[in-house]
Amino acid sequence: MGTLLLFLSTSFLFHVLVSGVTYTESISPNFTASSFKFIDNAGAFLFSHNGTFKVAIFNPGVQKAHYYLCVMHAVSGTVIWSANRDGPISSSGKMILTAIGITIAEQDGNEKWSTPPLRSSVHALQLTEMGNLVLLDQLNHSLWESFQYPTDTIVMGQHLLEDTILSSAVSDDDLSTGDYKLTVSDSDVMLQWYGQTYWKLSMDARAYRNSNYINEYMEINGTGLFLFGRNGSAVVTQVTLPPSKFRIAQLDASGQFMISSFLGTDRKQEFVGPPDGCRIPFVCGRIGLCTGTTYNGPICSCPQGFLGGSQNSSGCVPSDGFSLPLACNSAKNVTQLNSSDVSYLRLGYGMSYFSIDFSEPIEYGVNLSVCQDVCTADCSCLGIYYQNSSGSCYAFENELGSIIASTTDDDDHLGYIKTLGGNDSPSNNGSTNQRQDFPVFALVLLPFTGFFIIVVFSFLWWRKWSFLKIKETKLGHANSISSGDLDAFYIPGLPQRFDYEELEVATDNFKTKIGSGGFGVVYKGTLPDKSAVAVKKITNLGVQGKKDFCTEIAVIGNIHHVNLVKLRGFCAQGRQRLLVYEYMNRGSLDRTLFGSGPVLEWQERFEIALGTARGLAYLHSGCEQKIIHCDVKPENILLHDCFRAKISDFGLSKLLGPEQSSLFTTMRGTRGYLAPEWLTNSAISEKTDVYSFGMVLLELVSGRKNCSMDASNSGCGQSISSSGSGFVYFPLFALEMHEQGNYLELADPRLEGRVTSEEMERLVRVALCCVQEEPLLRPTMVSVVGMLESSTPLGQPRIESLNFLRFYGRRFTEASMIGEENEQSDIILYPEATSTTNGSHACFSYISSQQISGPR
Ligand SMILES: *[C@@H]1O[C@H](CO)[C@@H](O)[C@H](O)[C@H]1NC(C)=O
Ligand SMILES: *[C@@H]1O[C@H](CO)[C@@H](O)[C@H](O)[C@H]1NC(C)=O
Ligand SMILES: *[C@@H]1O[C@H](CO)[C@@H](O)[C@H](O)[C@H]1NC(C)=O
Ligand SMILES: *[C@@H]1O[C@H](CO)[C@@H](O)[C@H](O)[C@H]1NC(C)=O
Ligand SMILES: *[C@@H]1O[C@H](CO)[C@@H](O)[C@H](O)[C@H]1NC(C)=O
Ligand SMILES: *[C@@H]1O[C@H](CO)[C@@H](O)[C@H](O)[C@H]1NC(C)=O
Ligand SMILES: *[C@@H]1O[C@H](CO)[C@@H](O)[C@H](O)[C@H]1NC(C)=O
Ligand SMILES: *[C@@H]1O[C@H](CO)[C@@H](O)[C@H](O)[C@H]1NC(C)=O
Ligand SMILES: *[C@@H]1O[C@H](CO)[C@@H](O)[C@H](O)[C@H]1NC(C)=O
Ligand SMILES: *[C@@H]1O[C@H](CO)[C@@H](O)[C@H](O)[C@H]1NC(C)=O
Ligand SMILES: *[C@@H]1O[C@H](CO)[C@@H](O)[C@H](O)[C@H]1NC(C)=O
């Protein structure tokens, strides 16, 4: 047997050496390969067990004879890994496997690449079925593997560890290391170019964050992209993709991170970041203006004041004799230059830069000339981006990329490109050239200006003061908090700041009221860029320091998730506090669900449930700070196109100071959605939101308010209500139907049976799990999402923790009889007993919702 094997393997090897066309998954030293030798097999000499991958000496281009040792996907010919990406060999070059490792060299012996020193001698080189090229020792232990040195691609099952990077290739023909990098950081996955970030996974709408562990590695598998936490078991972030047998994730030569799946030779793109091609840093070359992308690629031009052909990959240069400075690490340092040589060329309005969304300002609350001075003194700064309203100053660092033409950006941001020389240019178009003559001016005048400055400043101060005075009288607010505080502080990440007058204009003097909630009235408005917004005028806050207000606004403004309503800006002027949100064209869920319009179909309801759950899960565990919503109810779930649910009003509870916490407890929470712990002095936690969410789920199922006294539209009330009065407390009905396993009874009769019984059961069971009395028993929102998506097993609600619904139900029917001619909504149920362990509530009392909800 042994001899037979030996015979077989030697003849195998012999065969390979002679013809090079046989499948082999392992080769031994001393072995040499060249592209010539295996020409019949397109250079391939090593295959994985069932042929998914191959190793070849391969030339990806046609122009140049650049050969690389590559691991490739056999069917599609996609290069997965290359050894000598920065040292290509000619067609006569070769790969040599010896006992000390792999060497790639030209025919004349000029070495281009080799494996690092190994701890023992090589026994075999193997290509695994996963696509990993491994050097094995005598005992089949791995000495070196290609998976530890990824180039621009990872395959299914390969771990990309935290702090390792993928580097793009220069082009599809030239595999050498390009300028785009993908890094797995401890909390995210980022794309960078010369150290400047241009995309983050966490900001992508399709990425879903499950937990807050520190990242350990990234992996793709048959169901998506996963980031795993340090202890290896917890998924931190995931992007769910359609099931696929084979997919790869690659940082493309173009600078985009792409996940593609393969079916035979067909390659299908499943995920691309950044999705907008104009956000790739060098898409149009240096200072090239990207105005959009088409099927054929980006549409490039030069900004006003710059010249260069659109086809010119080196980009655009200033048109009037200025030159662009070189960055720090190049031979001519800007620091050595006389700063009076430096000037700034202004880019027009509506121009953005890829790194702005991902970098912190280098200075806050400075004027433009200070911003420019800081840039002038720093050789890595090649341009600035200045926000006039907040005084934020951003730097374009290390290397100048392309400019993005943005249609949505307001006129508040302006970019300036640092330039050198070109003094006294005769054909200076003043509008595009902003000479930095301030320092000269200041130096000359300094000895004489002490008095002058005092005069000017007092004048300016007086002007500002009287202006504010006028403004406040106009607004009708007499005792404003210190008027000098306007623009006195700057907080990173603050969204756009609006003037009260701007919002007055935008809302046509607060004409169209579209809602009112716990914090104030909401008006519809239109910004100058024609985008529709919802402006919330906050009334119930009392006086609060503007800085504290802005700190919270910065937190809320930085929470981005597809299922959360985006805060676009704010106004804090005098005593006015307004929040500007994106406008949701389909209004709030309560109107659609309980209204008399077209009935919400079951699939739409299910999507809304899932979206809301995702939004809440993000608030609870996806952001840096845990945020408890405290007022989850259909009024706060807004709908956009395609019934995408977005949660509004999150984070606002934080606007209340500690001294207002009593107001907080009386104000927040809405009857019917209020968890028992609100009333029993227990701690409020994120599980409080879970309870409210459960109540909302039940309303989605039934299509009517849980507390509705109107049984006429239920069609089933009479049959179940124990008192026979016809008033139904729906959560109790749901519990009873759950006990009987009769879920379809619960469906909104208006759906006329157009429901999926399996999804119906899932929704009801999740809802009952959520409304359990004991907060610890309620699932987290993350597992609610899992259960709704069917990726985690459905929980089993504990009846003993739901018995309180029976008490609520009984009270409800009694209350409804007492309160029949009263306005229905004024009664809620209030368990006084604080001991909830055995579910025995000694006594109940009524409390008016007015007392709970407080003034609204
Ligand atoms: C490989 O070649 C080296 C020197 O050329 C020799 O010392 C060694 O024994 C060879 N190994 C095998 C397995 O043939
Ligand atoms: C490839 O081979 C492995 C064994 O090495 C096997 O488990 C796997 O199912 C095969 N895959 C395919 C797609 O045939
Ligand atoms: C190493 O693996 C090969 C095939 O995978 C096997 O034939 C050989 O017996 C293994 N050697 C040892 C020492 O385990
Ligand atoms: C992919 O990984 C995730 C996370 O470990 C896992 O839940 C999922 O089942 C995996 N998919 C496949 C097809 O193995
Ligand atoms: C690892 O993660 C699991 C799952 O989330 C968790 O239960 C466990 O406590 C973690 N272990 C450590 C050491 O952090
Ligand atoms: C691109 O522009 C640079 C600078 O203006 C110029 O030197 C170069 O010749 C141009 N190249 C092409 C191909 O037009
Ligand atoms: C350029 O400046 C940097 C720091 O500003 C310095 O480290 C570097 O040595 C300088 N290079 C030259 C060529 O002067
Ligand atoms: C900068 O230029 C001005 C005039 O162009 C000159 O007076 C000054 O000495 C220069 N400073 C340095 C540091 O070279
Ligand atoms: C900019 O601010 C600096 C420091 O705050 C001040 O000295 C300078 O006069 C300001 N310049 C302009 C043009 O307002
Ligand atoms: C910047 O804001 C000031 C007032 O805050 C205004 O006078 C000036 O015109 C603005 N500049 C630009 C370029 O918008
Ligand atoms: C100055 O502006 C005019 C009109 O905007 C334009 O025709 C001209 O080419 C510009 N000159 C330079 C040098 O940019």
Automatic annotation (TrEMBL):
A single GO cellular-component term on record: membrane
UniProt cross-references to Pfam families, sorted A to Z: B_lectin (PF01453), Pkinase (PF00069)
Domain of life where this protein originates: Eukaryota
Gene name of this polypeptide: LOC105127836
Family designation: Belongs to the protein kinase superfamily. Ser/Thr protein kinase family.
Sites where the protein binds ATP: K537
Residue ranges crossing the lipid bilayer per the database entry: 438-462
Protein name per UniProt: Receptor-like serine/threonine-protein kinase
Cited CDD domains: B_lectin, STKc_IRAK
GO molecular function per UniProt: ATP binding; protein serine/threonine kinase activity
Primary site of residence: membrane
Major enzyme class: transferase
Subcellular location: Membrane
Topology of the protein relative to the lipid bilayer: Single-pass membrane protein
Catalytic activity entry: L-seryl-[protein] + ATP = O-phospho-L-seryl-[protein] + ADP + H(+); L-threonyl-[protein] + ATP = O-phospho-L-threonyl-[protein] + ADP + H(+)
Entry EC no(s): 2.7.11.1
